[in-house]
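WARN no homologs supplied; continuing
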Amino acid sequence: MNRRQFLLLATAGSFGAALGVSELMKFAAQPAPVSAKPTPTWLYSASDNPAGGHFLSKLDLSSGTVQSLPVGVRGHGVLPMSDGRVLMFGRRPAFACEVVNFDDASNLTLNAINGRHFAGHGCLSGRGDVLFTTENDYNGKRGVLGIRDSKSLQPVGEYTTYGLDPHDVQLLPDGKTLVVANGGIETHPDFGRRKLNLDTMQPSLVYLDSETGKKLDEYRLPDHQLSIRHLIVTPDGDVGVALQYEGDLYRKQPASLVAWQHAGGDLRLLAVDNPTVAQFNGYMADLAYDPQQRIAAVTSPRGNHVTFWDTDAGAFLAAIPLTEPSGLAFIPAQGFVVSGANGDLHRCQVTKHSTNATLLHKFTDTLWDNHLTIA
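OK structure emitted
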């Protein structure tokens, strides 16, 4: 049985056992409420202002209203918690994260344990009671997932990630399996963000059992200098990967900067020609996914493009030039929303035959960081 079959059976089995056939039929027969008002679409992102202040921002997309609360660290990834608080991960290397409550405009600091620093991302367990955080055991030269109680935020343990430089981690639809992006780069706080092993780096995509930490699978790409950085997991259990090239761009362009793994299949680079990939300056950031059209979007802030990829064909579709596009979110019936490091917010409507970008809002005092999170 491959991983796709397992995910589908596990999902169907648990859902059916919980409701039963008669309850399922009753649930399906219930009409949608005709008077229901549309739920506001909230987007969260770390941000800065032109003076260099750091914030966590909450955006009402329909009105363009932004609520920004000051924080003590420059942020990166954002994770809405099950109790309404929002966790903002510090930008690597970070010894602290911020937990923000927008209801009372309060925040508290989450400190890394001794000998670790946070690496920018994290996720919740299937039940929401456990928080996993990507971390660097910098003296031990190994990547770890910190394990914390999601309410108290107290550490309760850690798992090895079976690689260096874990950056992103996501939970698969089975609610049990974690996928970790090991970037493969050795760093140490004594050297800031200096990369210490570019000639020997070994990025990997690793799957772990969230309850035991057991390694289930590991995948690598042919080019060991393609650092595996950011992830997206689709409802079908596919995994998309945004890559950053650590080789010499003056001598060679990478074969691609986006990889895709259909559930149960191999990790493969998505096809793109050399002149096109050269436009992206060796760097991809955030990802979003349209599950109906099976189109992935990936931002290239250093290349000043947002890119689109056909995941069925395994190939590049198109790119739209935008100034330093950073975060991405997909909203059904609306399209992709793209934030820019210059404060712009665009909507991109994309099919496999056409692309269109529209400026939604322009903020002069809110400079968006690399990720958008929808909640």
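The radius of gyration is 20 Å.
OK
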